[in-house]
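Chapter review: from sequence to fold.
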Amino acid sequence: MIRRIFLIARQDFLKYVTRRGFFISLLMVPLIFIVAAVVPSLVASHAQTRILTVVDRAGGYEQSMAAAVARNDAQTTLSALSEYAEKYADMAALGRAHAGLAAMLKAPDRVAQINAFQASGGWRAAFATLSDFLRAGAPVFTPPDPHYVLVPAPSELAADRDMSAVARGYLEGKRQVTVAGQPSTLSAIIVIPKGFAPGAVAAAQYWTTNTTDGETLRFVHWTLTDAFRVRALRQLVAPQRQSDVNLDVDADIQTFDPTKAAGTHVSLEDRLAPLVPTGLAFLLFIVAFSNAALLLQSVIEEKSTRMIEVLLSCATPQEIMTGKLLGAVAVALVTIVLWGLSLFVLASLFSHEAIAVITAGLAAVASEQYLPLIVLYFFCGLLIYSAVFLGIGAMTTSLPDAQALMGPATLIIVLPNMLLGVVMQDPNGPLATIISWIPIYTPFFMLVRLPFHPPVLQLWLTAVLVILTTAFLIRQTGRIFANHVLVTERPPAFGAWIKQFALRRRSA
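The token string follows.
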């Protein structure tokens, strides 16, 4: 019996992996990840610079905006230089020789490091020091384009009270300002009216023709809010101490997890470990549905070509169905391994640190106490979804019939994903718990919830639930397979199958 099951599994496995659809599915996921990794970086590197101007009728706010623009530019450049150094420089040697520069590059988002970067001469001075520690063949660092450029307000804007027509001319490009010697169109005009101050009625005006650019509006809003805070604080201190009130501070926060050893900070491995079960949950869906078409097509082809009759002369329907399930699971595992290897290679090409990060994440998961549950949920999920699609293939007589049934089945399986955002906000709340007890959704949502430490009782009871669900579906799929595998001339009667199932339950 076992030998026949493995022979059928081997036959189906070889049949799946030699199809063009299998190779297409192998290529699709790496291509999607390449697009997801490359396109945002290309868009970010070629993002249009927003050109701003401030008509400051209250006084002092143009300087606050200029300081915010300069800091934003320094942070963007320092972050790019940090990525460049991680990729091309010997950071250990740099740290020994120039601890200050190494500290800047390791924490490019810290206010103190951004201030030090600006005070030390910006990227040119930093790159001149960094050049002595670059690896052979490293390209020259090119700073990114600034997100924002602040230009002096044109005299027409500053003088005109009813500035609608003038502002429209500058924002539509009919009138232009000069940036780095080139004529340019303003992206936004910020008007600070007289009397603009904390608690005042007067509001700042933000003029733009691109009302969908929420990022720039938020930048202006928080810059002016910070200016309010500084002004309010300076009124509370003596005049000789007012210069000490600024935004050049940030809080150092250390993260702890009570489930880890006492006094242990949350490490990079600890941050990566929760991502793996969630990634496996989505991978479960991708693999199950990418192999579903192959599984359906295989069963329908064998029924239409009478090959199934040859198999039935050598094995029972239950053995054939079990072998096909094992073959589908083997294809899924091979697909996952090949995807993982290809993504590992691609990640290593994009970043020298990617291999260490991926290795650290896998090592953290291997040491997790929930590793057996991760494996259990994943494999049971594969078997559950494969059994559903195999049952659809056994009940149908043609590929169109299979697709007609596969649509509702897919909708039912995928529907709760619309609630994933709500579940992630409260992964141990009532909604997440209820969905986790619905057997067909248990593998996916428990994988998503595992990093958030659900109650131990839920873990073990849902583990028992998925095992029982898997065994039940395999048994029922075997019965469906036995009853419908030789049917080749009539479409599936789903209602009749329900009645037949009910009658069997009564007789039992």
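Two observations follow directly from the output. Residues 488-492 have pLDDT under 50 and may be disordered. Residues 317-350 form the longest helix (34 residues).
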